[in-house]
């Protein structure tokens, strides 16, 4: 009798996790690549990044999400997403450092979320321009060639509509919780889908964006999308993107215009754009894109802040979950620019900004890499 009771108790105990996680989905991917990378060209050999073989984790992640049906088309939703991007070098990542939120979703009125979440500008203007996303050869982000106004908002409120005949709209607000300054940030965007066509349009604004007064603006790498230490009162970004899929061919294009309103001196203006094509062949694909960052109007030697990037990549699906990929990319930075890789960035010197030591890519260095990797989705 005791043995039977013990067996029942143990069975119930081991069944508990399955019951507790019945409404929880686990998702993500593990990826790794090997590449050969370097960054040279600034004229100072001591600040070059010599060709190096690297093993990369390519933005790997794991997430947990779930929902509860509250009736009448309303659901409570939640998500916790974590980066695994440093598993290749025994590093650590912040728990819930990626999109992590709680909110309500209604079948008619849309979704309202609180927490850490990609801005409406980032989500809804993404119509497929990043053909080698999550690899060294990606091209989107605040310190890359294209979509420099995108961000993942913390302390944010986000609302997204349901689809109205292919049209989805959204708005995001990031609250400034530091009483010493007003750095509230918000964005509004929309995406329209009609068969193989996708269009994205967005606007992003941040108040009191970086107020560093360092004498050498080229010493600040990723602190400002404009790549300068001018005293900015407000940063504004406008973006238009499009993609069109016909049969096995995907065509992409995007244009972004940025303005920085300064407290002293001339306002800053800079644009960027990208074009590309992806051709699928059964389980494989070949991908090619080119992007350019324009001159920085409002500073001396505006052309010195230009940059460009070409990307050639390919993928092959071994199964529905497993993919191999390869890429080659090169970024050309003018003398005062230091656009870096999307992932697995290169740094070639350390600078001190307001007493903080920051690792940066030396201005004028041209990062380039060639590599191959494996991704398993789950």
From TrEMBL:
What is the topology of this protein in the membrane according to its UniProt annotation? Multi-pass membrane protein
Q: Does the keyword Ion transport apply?
A: yes
Ordered alphabetically, the record's keywords are: Cell outer membrane, Ion transport, Membrane, Porin, Signal, Transmembrane, Transmembrane beta strand, Transport
What Gene3D superfamilies has UniProt attached to this entry? Porin
Keyword Signal in record: yes
For this UniProt entry, which residues form the secretion signal?
A: 1-20
**Which superkingdom does the taxonomy of this entry point to?**
Bacteria
Q: Where is the Porin domain?
A: 7-335
In terms of SUPFAM superfamilies, this protein maps to: Porins
GO biological-process terms attached to the record: monoatomic ion transmembrane transport
Which InterPro entries does this entry report, sorted A to Z? Gram-neg_bact_OMP, Gram_neg_porin_domain, Porin_dom_sf, Porin_Gram-ve, Porin_Neis
Question: Where is the protein found, in the record's own terms?
Answer: Cell outer membrane
Task: Give the record's GO CC terms.
Answer: cell outer membrane; pore complex
Q: Name one GO molecular function term.
A: porin activity
How it assembles, according to the record, is: Homotrimer.
Record-linked PANTHER family: MAJOR OUTER MEMBRANE PROTEIN P.IA, PROTEIN YDDL-RELATED
Report the protein name in the record.
Porin
Q: Supply the source organism for this entry.
A: Crenobacter caeni
């Amino acid at each position: 009798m005791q043995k039977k009771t013990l067996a029942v108790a143990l069975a119930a105990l081991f069944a508990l996790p399955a019951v507790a996680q019945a409404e929880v989905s686990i998702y993500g991917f593990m990826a790794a690549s090997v590449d050969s990378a370097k960054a040279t060209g600034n004229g100072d050999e001591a600040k070059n990044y010599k060709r190096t073989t690297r093993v990369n984790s390519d933005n790997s992640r794991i997430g947990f999400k779930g929902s509860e049906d509250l009736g009448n088309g309303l659901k409570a939703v939640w998500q916790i997403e974590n980066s695994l991007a440093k598993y290749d070098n025994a590093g650590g990542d912040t728990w819930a450092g990626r999109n992590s939120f709680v909110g309500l979703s209604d079948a008619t009125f849309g979704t309202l979320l609180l927490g850490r979440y990609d801005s409406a500008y980032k989500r809804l203007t993404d119509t497929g321009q990043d053909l080698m996303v999550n690899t060294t050869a990606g091209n989107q982000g605040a310190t890359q060639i294209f979509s420099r106004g995108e961000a993942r908002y913390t302390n944010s409120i986000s609302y997204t509509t349901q689809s109205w005949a292919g049209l989805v709209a959204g708005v995001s607000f990031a609250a400034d919780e530091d009483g010493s300054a007003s750095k509230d940030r918000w964005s509004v965007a929309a995406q329209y889908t009609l068969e193989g066509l996708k269009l994205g349009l967005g606007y992003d604004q941040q108040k009191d964006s970086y107020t560093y007064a360092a004498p050498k603006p080229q010493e600040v790498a990723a602190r400002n999308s404009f790549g300068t230490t001018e005293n900015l009162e407000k940063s504004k970004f406008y973006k238009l993107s499009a993609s069109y899929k016909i049969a096995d061919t995907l065509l992409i294009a995007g244009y972004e215009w940025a303005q920085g309103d300064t407290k002293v001196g001339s306002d800053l203006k800079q644009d960027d754009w990208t074009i590309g094509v992806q051709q699928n062949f059964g389980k494989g694909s070949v991908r090619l894109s080119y992007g350019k960052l324009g001159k920085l109007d409002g500073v001396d030697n505006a052309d010195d802040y230009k940059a460009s990037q070409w990307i050639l990549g390919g993928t092959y699906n071994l199964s529905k979950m497993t993919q191999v990929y390869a890429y080659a990319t090169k970024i050309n930075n003018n003398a005062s620019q230091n656009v870096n890789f999307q992932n697995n960035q290169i740094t070639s010197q350390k600078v001190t900004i307001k007493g903080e030591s920051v690792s940066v890519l030396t201005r004028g260095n041209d990062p380039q890499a060639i590599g191959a990797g494996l991704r398993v989705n789950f």
